[in-house]
Amino acid sequence: MSVETFWHGSKTVIEDFSEAAATKGVHFGTKDQASMRNAAFLHEVEVDLDKTSRSRDRQSWSDVASRARRAGCDAVRYLNRYEGMPIDRLNALLSAGHGDSLDTISDRAFRKLVPESEDSILVVNPSAIRLLRIFDQEGNVVLDCHSAPTPEM
Questions:
Q1: 89 close to 68: Cβ distance less than 8 angstroms
Q2: Do 51 and 31 sit in the same domain of this protein?
């Protein structure tokens, strides 16, 4: 099992991602990706990844989430083509005439154009997510689950 740390940005505090993960899935990525979502709050999580699948980035994820769940996957990895791209890089690509092709080119070709692009994940298994901390826009800790005492067995 691989445990990885990811981030989620939102306009509200989310203390439990279970319902969303069990239905449509929850997107997590790097801190920079999460920050680009006009996030009032950044949620730091750990995700237990036993089994993942891979997909292209898309606008609609419901069918991908359903297939991954049926296949017993915890999450779906994808190269994030939207969040995390610096605005100056996007402007340069648009000026060079690449605007129409960014959604259709292969991940390999996209990585050549945007070498700083990184993967994100769509988590479809609610039990794989463990909330660590929530931060506000100023970087203040709103909730720290990471330092909570572990119950004695």
A1: no
A2: yes
Per-residue pLDDT of the chain (153 residues; tens, 9 = 90+): 799 999 999 999 999 999 999 999 999 999 999 998 778 999 999 999 999 999 999 888 999 999 999 999 999 999 998 887 888 888 999 999 988 888 889 999 999 999 999 999 999 999 999 999 999 999 999 999 966 554 454
* Residue 10: strand pairing partners: 41
Residues 111 and 126 in one domain: no
Distance, CA of 26 to CA of 122 (rounded, Å): 5
Enumerate the β-bridge partners of residue 131. Answer: 45
- How many Cα atoms sit within 13 Å of 53 on the Cβ side? 15
Q: Which two tokens stand for residue 6?
A: 């990811």
Please indicate, yes or no, whether residues 132 and 109 belong to a single structural domain of this protein: no
Number of domains forming the structure of the chain: 2
